């Protein structure tokens, strides 16, 4: 994917005798920086628009990121393992189309959910098979499946749309659990916890880091690298299916252009969350805070009547800046030391 | 010699294209009429030009996803310029388009070279930024045919020696690339950098600079195509050539250019683009809805890359079978 000249070559990596305390590590962490940014954005927004602090408005704002963040969690794991999936938005489209098709056949809500999740899993499995089974580079494979999956939606739907979802299906995207707390937000929070546990507290999570840092080393230490990667592609597909259910339920209609361009925002969210795009490092709390930052920024701009496409300039700049700034800072610091 | 020719990627692809065209011709003889084939070529010309630019970028282990946005932004700028100053001669517009495109390519290249940011991230970012800028400068308005000067619109369509200028430009670019890639130190540097960056450094090649040069070339061609596109279709708006970058990458992958860098040929990129162009133009002829286009190019990418991987697998002693696979 890129020119990776490992900096661990001849000199070897410095490994400290003991780790710094968790508090010390937190104070110099990317997550803290993000948290500061999040608070700053929140404060700025509340000054910029008098409508921002209204609880219902804030609740609406969460819809800007919950669906994307669900996928971003799985994508984070995938990127940490050294792969990427650019087809997620197209999986949403295909999954939503499959559900819409089922509605025309008279399916009820439980069946729709199964179909949505099933389509996501199938798509993820297909990506996973191409990458791990045939050994193809994930970036090209998922650029291909990105066209293929959305292409199938276009073949099925053309310029038409599916509507007429059952009324209880609307709960996933429009329902509230308690007061202003939406079902989607609860799901987002639960998934954040689940993914944080998977990545940071289980053997599988450890394996994800190892695979991303050194696939050959991982193999020698007994990790089934292809299987880990396949599982991650499945997981990303599944989360795309979940997001498809929420989004379809929220919009109440399926068009082939649904969720167009989301892959970019999801990758941006993951990278903004401090996940190394080359694999090997990153954390779920980082992605969660990044989701809030992006959601708040988009919502704040929306309240100020900034058109969506101008926001996308900001997202593009953000994506480049969050990767460029640490590198520039690192370089400046290194120069000062020398 | 003949055996290696038989096995070569380009021969297989050329054969596939021939079979495809013949299959269409048996049902619809009109498709292979010279005038129609010339039309198909002219229609594919932008894809050919961009695919060649993309090829050198991919050769150096990078990727340029911002080409379509670059094209659209340059197209919008020259269209607005033409609206403001209808008297501006076409050569000046061409030069401006190429320079502007090259500048945007340079921005990509510098980010990759000086800051070492992964190419996919850089160009995903600049892709949205360039598209956004179109909206900002145009205010979301369209520029329509009647707002463009006649000379501006006529240039790519003018017929010279039986072919429109657009086709001739594509042919010139192909010839230019054959020389650039096959006969110049820069062309060899592209392969060296992609084949083995470490070895390239030791042979005195500046890896980052070479990658940056590839981006500038790709950007300049995108700029050139931007003007040609807008002039040919006589309309400029925010979303022109939306998603075209995928088609360009698809053409390269189908043409056998390895996404891992260092492998590829001008002929491959050309044939890959022609393949997609023929499919696109044949769909309406054989009465298939154009909505199939996206799925077909997606499948073509997957099949081509799978095919590449199996045919490029080098035979050698495998010490640890799965380790190679995992890496």
From TrEMBL, chain B:
An example molecular function term from Gene Ontology annotations: transmembrane transporter activity
Transmembrane segments: 12-32, 91-113, 120-139, 159-182, 215-236, 248-279, 291-311
Main location: membrane
Keyword terms, alphabetized: Cell membrane, Membrane, Transmembrane, Transmembrane helix
Domain of life of the source: Bacteria
Cellular location(s): Cell membrane
Membrane topology summary: Multi-pass membrane protein
One annotated Gene Ontology cellular component of this protein: plasma membrane
Keyword presence, Membrane: yes
Entry keyword Kinase: no
Name under which the protein is recorded: Ribose transport system permease protein RbsC
């Amino acid at each position: 994917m890129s020119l990776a000249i490992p900096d661990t070559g001849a000199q070897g990596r410095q490994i400290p005798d003991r780790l710094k305390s968790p508090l010390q590590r937190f104070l110099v962490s990317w997550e803290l920086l993000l948290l500061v940014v999040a608070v700053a954005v929140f404060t700025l927004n509340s000054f910029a628009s008098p409508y921002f602090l209204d609880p219902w408005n804030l609740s609406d704002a969460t819809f800007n990121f919950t669906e994307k963040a669900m996928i971003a969690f799985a994508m984070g794991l995938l990127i940490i393992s050294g792969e990427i999936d650019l087809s997620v938005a197209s999986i949403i489209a295909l999954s939503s189309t499959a559900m819409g098709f089922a509605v025309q056949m008279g399916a009820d809500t439980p069946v729709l959910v199964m179909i949505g999740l099933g389509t996501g899993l199938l798509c993820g499995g297909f990506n996973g098979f191409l990458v791990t089974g045939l050994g193809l580079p994930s970036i090209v494979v998922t650029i291909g499946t990105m066209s293929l999956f959305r292409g199938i939606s276009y073949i099925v739907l053309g310029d038409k749309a599916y509507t007429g979802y059952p009324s209880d299906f609307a709960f996933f995207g429009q329902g509230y659990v308690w007061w202003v707390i939406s079902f989607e937000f609860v799901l987002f929070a639960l998934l954040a916890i689940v993914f944080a546990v998977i990545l940071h507290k289980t053997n599988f999570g450890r394996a994800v880091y190892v695979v991303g840092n050194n696939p050959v080393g991982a193999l020698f230490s007994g990790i089934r690298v292809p299987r880990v990667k396949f599982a991650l592609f499945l997981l990303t597909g599944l989360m795309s299916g979940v997001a498809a259910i929420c989004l379809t339920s929220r919009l109440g209609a399926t068009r082939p252009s649904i969720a167009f361009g989301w892959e970019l925002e999801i990758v941006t969210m993951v990278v903004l969350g401090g996940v190394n795009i080359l694999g090997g490092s990153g954390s779920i709390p980082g992605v969660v805070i990044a989701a809030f930052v992006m959601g708040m920024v988009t919502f704040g701009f929306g309240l100020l009547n900034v058109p969506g496409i101008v926001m996308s300039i900001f997202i593009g700049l953000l994506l480049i800046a969050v990767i460029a700034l640490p590198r520039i800072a690192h370089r400046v610091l290194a120069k000062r030391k020398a | 010699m003949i055996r290696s020719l038989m096995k070569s990627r380009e021969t297989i692809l050329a054969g596939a294209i021939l079979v495809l065209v013949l299959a269409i011709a048996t049902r619809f003889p009109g498709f292979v009429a010279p005038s129609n084939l010339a039309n198909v070529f002219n229609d594919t010309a932008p894809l050919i030009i961009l695919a060649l630019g993309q090829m050198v970028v991919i050769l150096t282990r990078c990727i340029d996803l911002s080409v379509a946005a670059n094209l659209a932004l340059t197209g919008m700028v020259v269209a607005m310029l033409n609206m403001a100053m209808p008297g501006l001669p076409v050569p000046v517009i061409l030069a401006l388009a190429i320079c502007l495109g090259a500048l945007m390519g340079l921005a990509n290249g510098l980010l990759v070279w000086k800051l070492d940011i992964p190419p996919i991230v850089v160009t995903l970012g600049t892709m949205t930024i360039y598209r956004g800028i179109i909206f900002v400068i145009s205010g979301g308005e369209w520029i329509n045919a009647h707002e463009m000067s006649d000379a501006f619109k006529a240039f790519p369509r003018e017929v010279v020696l039986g072919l429109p200028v657009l086709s001739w430009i594509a042919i010139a670019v192909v010839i230019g690339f054959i020389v650039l890639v096959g006969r110049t130190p820069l062309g060899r540097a592209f392969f060296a950098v992609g084949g083995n960056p470490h070895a390239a450094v030791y042979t005195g090649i500046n890896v980052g600079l070479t990658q940056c040069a590839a981006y500038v070339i790709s950007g300049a061609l995108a700029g050139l195509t931007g003007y040609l596109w807008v002039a040919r279709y006589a309309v400029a708006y925010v979303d022109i050539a939306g998603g075209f970058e995928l088609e360009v990458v698809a053409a390269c992958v189908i043409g056998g250019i390895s996404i891992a860098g260092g492998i590829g040929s001008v002929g491959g990129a050309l044939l890959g683009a022609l393949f997609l162009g023929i499919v696109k133009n044949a769909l309406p002829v054989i009465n298939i809805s154009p909505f199939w286009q996206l799925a077909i190019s997606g499948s073509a990418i997957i099949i081509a890359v799978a095919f590449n991987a199996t045919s490029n697998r080098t035979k050698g002693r495998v010490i640890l079978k799965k380790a190679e696979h995992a890496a």
